[in-house]
Amino acid sequence: MTPTVDELLADAVVVSIPLATRFRGVDHREALLVEGREGWTEFSPFLEYGDAEAAAWLAAAIDFGWVAPPALLRDVIRVNATLPAVPPDQVAAVLARFPGARTVKVKVAERGQVLAEDVARVREVRSLLGPEGRIRLDANGAWNLDEAEHAVHAMAEFDLEYIEQPCTTVEDLAELRRRVKYMGIPVAADESVRKAEDPLAVARARAADLLVIKAQPLGGLHRALALVAEAGLPAVVSSALDTSVGIAMGAHLAAALPELDYDCGLGTVSLLADDVAVEPLRPVDGAIPVRRPAIDTDALRRLSAGPERTAWWRERVRRCFDLLEP
Prior knowledge:
Strand order of the largest sheet: 5-6-7-8-9-10-11
Helix content: 25-40%
Order of helices and strands: HEEEHEEHEHEHEHEHHEHEHEHH
Strand content: 15-25%
Number of domains: 2
Distance between the termini: 12 Å
Number of helices: 12
Largest sheet: 7 strands, parallel
CATH superfamily of the largest domain: Enolase-like C-terminal domain
Shape: globular
Radius of gyration: 19 Å
CATH architecture of the largest domain: Alpha-Beta Barrel
Structural class: alpha/beta
CATH class of the largest domain: Alpha Beta
Number of strands: 12
CATH topology of the largest domain: TIM Barrel
């Protein structure tokens, strides 16, 4: 049985966690945490998301907190380092927070920056990783079709693993994939899956070689697994700058996938300056364990978002709960 909204909010805690490195234009990450029948779970859509989009994140929190998880096929998940759009002289310090990572996802196409800055950042990553390391780019849909093609050519020399969401539309993704196919650089879809009214459209259009999936925006473990099965494409599991609780949700999703050929974007607790877990799910030797972390009650008090922000989140939960399918 799933909880009522009053049961969901009875012991909910809202935290605000400082970031070690500014990311996505924010320097604090807010999240609502609650202990369900299956364990602690997280509701943390970004602040700018509307209720209709955030409702899927609430469905995911309920799924992880109150529904038995799917069968798990692995107990350790290899993870990538995530590099914000920092200048080259800051790259080494960020990557040091991801010990043992053999793969780096580099944020590119940052607002206010130019392609030359992306190239310099990626060049520095390749220098630090060596020839065996894996580099993937994430543009968050910020390029148009021609810009994306130009960027792929500019950075192809760095032996890219894939490029994630280079353009916004499914049509542009499909055309870019056609244009760069001869270069052997796969195209991955993220926003075209998790933000789409029809998350399978990208697969039907053959607009991507693989899917980047996140448990929270897709409505939880079970819905995400069903989507991957229906899409019939390889998948890499990623996160949305979650606390260790949200990362555990992603790790359970990765552990349940029949095939997992890519390192996952589940090391982002390393981008936070603090966390709510007794033993945060930060990478060790390039991997994280698949487990629900024990919660540090002192950390919940230390990181409390305060009464005004707590009231804001509680009201958000009530609005989103009303939008869930019965």
